[in-house]
Design a protein that fits this description.
Structural class: alpha+beta
Order of helices and strands: HHHHHEEHEEEEEEE
Radius of gyration: 20 Å
Strand content: 15-25%
Helix content: 10-25%
Shape: globular
Number of strands: 9
CATH class of the largest domain: Mainly Beta
Number of helices: 6
CATH architecture of the largest domain: Ribbon
């Protein structure tokens, strides 16, 4: 499905002239509801989609519709059909991936995790092409990703997102300032590498493998990369 078949103009990044005055409000409601479903807030969606804070606020609050350039960036991040997002018509997810001939591709390198540090990754062992639209829908991003095989297990809080040694995962470099509550991260420590979730607050119950803010430092745990998902499953 072409972009033109969804939105006839990309000059919609302002108050809509659609005769249905409630269209922006409905668009904002779908945007907020889908964001909640995938556990992302307004700021993170804006960052991933490359949308300015002020523009995103207008979409989020149902004050305006967006143009086709912003629409397809948002639908990629939210992993929904662009037509459903802008109009509420059609299926919510699936069914609008580009044809293979029209798709953009991203070459994702595989690195040996034993060579990955906070200063470098060594030489890539191989490169694998992935469709950018598939990466967006599966992981929420297609930029600066690389693959590694885990050197240890990871125990998640609820046991539904555990990872095992040897599994292939998509990752991206992360700095201490980019860490957010719930991120699953590969950390460097004196004795090697550790996979653990970053949590802002301690809870009474057992949380599995967790690193807290007071443990993030050069002499304790240094974040190397954030894990976005298994080879065929988003985290």
């Amino acid at each position: 499905m072409s972009k033109a078949s969804v939105v006839g103009s990309n000059k919609m990044d302002h108050k809509s002239d659609n005769s249905d005055s409630q269209a922006p409000a409905a668009f904002g409601a779908r945007l907020r509801a889908r964001a909640a479903e995938i556990d992302k807030d307004q700021a993170e969606i804006a960052r991933l989609a490359g949308i300015k804070k002020q523009s995103m606020s207008g979409y989020w609050n149902g004050e305006r519709l967006c143009g086709s350039d912003k629409l397809f960036a948002l639908s990629d991040v939210l992993r929904v059909n662009a037509r459903w997002l802008i109009s509420g018509e059609g299926t919510k997810t699936g069914g609008d991936l580009m044809s293979v001939e029209d798709a953009d591709w991203e070459q994702v390198p595989l690195f040996d995790l034993r060579n990955v540090t906070d200063t470098g990754k060594g030489d890539a062992q191989s490169w694998t092409p992935f469709r950018k639209d598939w990466l967006y829908r599966t992981l929420g991003t297609a930029f600066d990703l690389y693959l590694v095989r885990l050197l240890s297990d990871y125990e998640s809080r609820n046991g539904d997102r555990d990872l095992s040694e040897g599994e292939l995962v998509f990752v991206r470099e992360v700095t201490p300032g980019e860490l957010q509550d719930g991120h699953v991260v590969i950390w460097r420590r004196d004795l090697g590498l550790k996979v653990a979730r970053y949590a802002l607050q301690r809870r009474d119950k057992d949380e599995g493998d967790v690193i807290y803010p007071d443990e993030v430092s050069d002499d304790q745990f240094v974040p190397i990369c954030r894990i976005y998902g298994k080879f065929l499953q988003r985290l």
